[in-house]
Amino acid sequence: MDDFVELVFPDGFLWGCAVAAHQVEGNNMNNNWWKWEQEGHTLDLSGVACDHYNRYKEDFGIARKLNLNSFRTSIEWSRVEPREGVWSSKEVEHYRRVLQEMRRRGLTPIITLHHFTDPLWFAEKGGWEKPESVDIFDCFVRKIVEELGDLIPFYTTINEPMVYVVLGYVFGVFPPGERDLLKAFSVARNLLLAHARAYRTIHEVCREMGYPKPMVGFAHNMMMFEPLDPKDERHVNEANTSDAIYNRWFLESIHTGVVQPPVGQEEAEGLKGAWDFIGLNYYTRSICIPSPDPSRRFAVVPMDAELTDMHYEVYPEGLYKLLVSLKKYGKPVYITENGIATSSDRQRCRFIIRHLAEAHRALRERVDLRGYMYWSLIDNFEWNEGFSKRFGLVEVNYKNLKRTPRESAYMYAEIAKRNAVTAELAQKYLGRSKA
Ligand code: BGC
Questions:
Q1: Pick from 125, 139, 188, 312: CA 20 to 30 A from residue 7's CA?
Q2: Is residue 1 part of a domain?
Q3: Please, which pLDDT band fits residue 279 given cuts at 50, 70 and 90?
Q4: Residue 319: is its pLDDT beyond 90?
Q5: What is the domain extent for residue 208?
Q6: How far is 342 from 407, CA to CA, in rounded Å?
Q7: What pLDDT, on the 0 to 100 scale, is given for residue 435?
Q8: Ligand 1 centroid from CA 234, angstroms
Q9: Residue 159 and residue 275: Cα distance in Å, rounded?
Q10: Would you say residue 2 lies in a domain?
């Protein structure tokens, strides 16, 4: 029999789940994703989604029953600012109740201010392509912090800016459906500067208002890029280039204070050190082969790979490698997303334990890892894939919106309760095929 040892996590470790407003709330009719859906780009329309807007109490109740101590969600900009400069006090009050409920349930809120969706009015005036976007977003950030900052200890300013850029402006599969590298560069720059500005604004407003000092970072999607043939220099170069641009461009820009090439090479005010932590969203590896067509860069999957329903390779070791690579920035790290779409909940259980084993390996190498948010608490609207992909620890029946925890939910609850992956759990779910 395999010998599994108990993997104990540090005291105060955050165990949570992540969701995003548009994917769960329902009826976010005033943003660019709603429009994208009406134009027929997605498998389903988000519609009422999981009706989390009305059922958040039930969902936080479930999270609490699962022994979670934290929860990551986003505030939908298009609700709070339905027209430029016009604020909806009704929606601000809604999010105040949401935050209060989270805290009442002992869930530390981790709040994202931009999770892929843009208000329609903002998208219509050029969105993140325009340099003014930085100021426009800053007004929203200031409003949220003034109104709700007393309740928010953690901010992830922008979710996966690189995914927003690559899918929206390189591959053209997310709104606005562009394939334009020059625009992609402008959008990347503006998102970076908007993050840095938001970082400063959040701290400034909290100081002015006498709110507790929050932790501010952004949620960064990283992929483990590896060459198909490590002996072929062209493959290695390809992997290194993807890593430099996709994984490192944001990180290095904030670390050095210099907007990195190919987008720039100049210092930007307030950029250096604009983070208190790094949020890592990790899902998969990408095997690199040289290709003049950027859309082929993510396409190679090893023949024997275990796949998710998103056709991503399950590659837990990548989490370890990326965590170790973040050590150089000297900042605490939170895994702000990690999860699997699968119709086999056993596969989900294995996925979680194997990734936690790799996270623990990184901890043993002194990575300052402080939390893990599973994506996602409940099945939800998976962007272009609609409701077809099931990421949840909790199943959502889309006919009656009933929530039913899966076995993985109980497994995760046990981990959160013990602050450890016990040898028994690892044995039960990994058996002979050890992580
Ligand atoms: C995004 C989520 C998405 C998840 C699963 C992440 O890239 O932040 O919104 O649902 O991946 O694909």
A1: 312
A2: no
A3: very high
A4: yes
A5: 7-429
A6: 13
A7: 42
A8: 30
A9: 14
A10: no
